[in-house]
Amino acid sequence: MSKSLVCTCEDVTASEVEHAISKGYCDIESVKRFTGFGTGMCQGKQCLNAVARLLEDKAPKKPAPAQLMPFTPRPPLFPTELGYWASAAFDPARAPAGGVPAVDIASPTLRSEAPVKAKAKIVIIGGGIMGLALAWNLAELGETDVVVLEKGYLCAGASGRNGGGIRAQWGTPTLISLARRSIELMKRFARDMGINVWFRQGGYLFLAKSDEVVRKIERGAALHNQHGVPTQILTPDAARDVVPQLTLKGVKAAAWNPKDAVIFPWPFLWGYAQQAQKRGVQVETFTDVVGFELGGGKIKKVITDRGEIACETVVLAAGAWSPQIAKLAGVHLPNHPHRHEICSTEPLKPFLGPLVSVLDSGLYFSQSMRGEIVGGMGDPREPVGLNLGSTSRFLTRYAQALTEQLPQTGRVKVLRQWSGPYDVTPDNSPILGKTPKLENLLNLSGFVGHGFMMAPAVAERMAKWMATGESDELFERFTLSRFAEGRMEREDMIIG
């Protein structure tokens, strides 16, 4: 295979593109996520045609025109300095508009003509990190008669749109325990799955500007220490020792755990998908669930746009899309989607060890192993809805907050911007386990912005619970029925 460069920005070779094609990723969006081509300075302008030609030449079946269409455009159109955005005006009282629209992740023209499997023991709806991690863990326990349904390409949803942060600094013992276990599993992920996820244990540094947030991180640190997490409360001067470039303007205290980490989301997802498929799990992309056949208080069949699947158990793991799928079965989920925007800059020489977050504003940023500054910031005026567009308002708010703490980034250019949905529940905790009056529909959603980092541990426990029938308090405490019963499992350590 040729070693010639196809994407000079990201050093992607023709052989790497051909390898992606051999894995079955035969459309532009999927190849982009598998190889990283088109994510550098030129944003695909110089390499897109070359990859399209390779798809035409190497794909086992001649690609349809939609498979060769340019991938989703990522604003800004040209690399633009953060200082420019920081100087722009915006109305803080105005709600965010739709912005630059995102392309539909589930193009019907990419749907396979072959029908889905007619029968499976377990159907998992959602090919994000939760669904794929569960599928792999089930397969590890011998449950291989599993079909995963994904309406788009892998990494199209929230799992492929996050910042890759992993932290044990949470506000409840349950989430602290789950996060610690996830970090353990992520440490060995490359070895176990045979794919590099660029795991980097640089820590999390939380900055607090108000007395209220200072009290929150102090309570959190005490709880963390009780559960084996070495969080420290630092003065601003001590926090500057961790990241000397920070101004720490307005900061009163900081919380620091050096064992928190960051990974690259896309290969993390690919690893679970590939290893699950090797064990016999079927992963069906571009397959939309359009209904259910119900009877006797159970789901008897999952109805898709590629046919029906008779099944014993259905797991709903579609993140922010879960409520609209549950509605097809007559089930109301109280989850609400909230857009969170994020951006990435040109690469810089490595200087930033931890992921840094200003808890008062929701700002967070880290530096990837390739050198980009990757960060985002929640917007309290963001309306509820599955809006995946990108706005100039976000870039202005984010650039102002980032350059306040890290002035050197004012001359750094933003390369691309995107958004993903938080899957928000009334108490900021997930919905897990059985559904009242529909006993074979299992829930695995509602993780707000932290499902990505909890997936390894949650999926490990859920697979064991499903395969063995052993009791697990996780799937008793966090059930959908808790809301009707007036029970809340409140989690307040949410970024953004």
What does this 3D model show about the protein?
By secondary structure, the chain is α+β, with helices and mostly antiparallel strands. Among the domains are: 67 residues, Arc Repressor Mutant, subunit A, CATH 1.10.10.1100; 182 residues, FAD/NAD(P)-binding domain (3-Layer(bba) Sandwich), CATH 3.50.50. The strands form four sheets. It has a nine-stranded mixed β-sheet. Strands 4, 5, 11, 12, 13, 14, 20 and 21 form an eight-stranded mixed β-sheet that branches. Strands 1-2 form a two-stranded antiparallel sheet. A hairpin with a 2-residue loop joins β12 and β13. α1 packs across α2 and α1 crosses α3. The longest helix is centred in the last third of the chain and has 18 residues. It is globular.
Quickly describe the structure.
By secondary structure, the chain is an alpha+beta fold.
CATH class of the domain at 108-161 and 266-335 and 427-484: Alpha Beta
**Coarse morphology:** globular
CATH superfamily of the domain at 108-161 and 266-335 and 427-484: FAD/NAD(P)-binding domain
Fraction in helix: 25-40%
CATH architecture of the domain at 108-161 and 266-335 and 427-484: 3-Layer(bba) Sandwich
- Biggest sheet layout: 9 strands, mixed
**Fraction in beta strands:** 15-25%
Cα-based radius of gyration, to the nearest Å: 22 Å
Tally of DSSP β-strands: 21
Output the strand order for the largest sheet. 3-19-15-18-17-16-7-9-8
Distance between the termini: 45 Å
Q: Tell me the CATH topology of the domain at 108-161 and 266-335 and 427-484.
A: FAD/NAD(P)-binding domain
Count of helical stretches: 15
Q: What number is the mean pLDDT?
A: 93
State the low-pLDDT regions, or none. Answer: none
Q: Determine the structural class based on helices, strands and strand pairing.
A: alpha+beta
